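INFO  loader      accepted 1 record
INFO  loader      residues=137
INFO  predictor   begin
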Amino acid sequence: MKQQSKPKKSKKENNHMPGDWLYFAPENVTVRHIFDVLTNANDDTITASYEVEIWEDAGVLEVGLSDGATLDIEQTEIPAKDEITAAFAKEHGCECVFLVTIKPEEFDIAKNAMQKIVASLGGLFCGDTEDFTPVLQ
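INFO  predictor   done
INFO  writer      dumping tokens
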């Protein structure tokens, strides 16, 4: 009788990372500010360059990363009934919130852009989860 080998599990890095994130930003940050940060070639903090499409009136950005990955950012409002999110934003001194979407397996690629945004504009990225984890500052 032939012994069957177990199928190999495909290893996906950061598959534990959420695909939905929130960017809590300081007062008056807009998609235009984020666009400017990611397209500023004179900034030496992180050397990656990004192709960014902006729909300013809609409050939407699509950030092209390497290997076809994208980081989608959309300005939103915290719903009045969402007291937990409002309290979290206030606790961290943030007035604006953005919905951020990435494919979990592309987190490592998106992380550099997220760090560049936080380094330039302040605020923090949090998983859109019950406990706002993981946190990227």
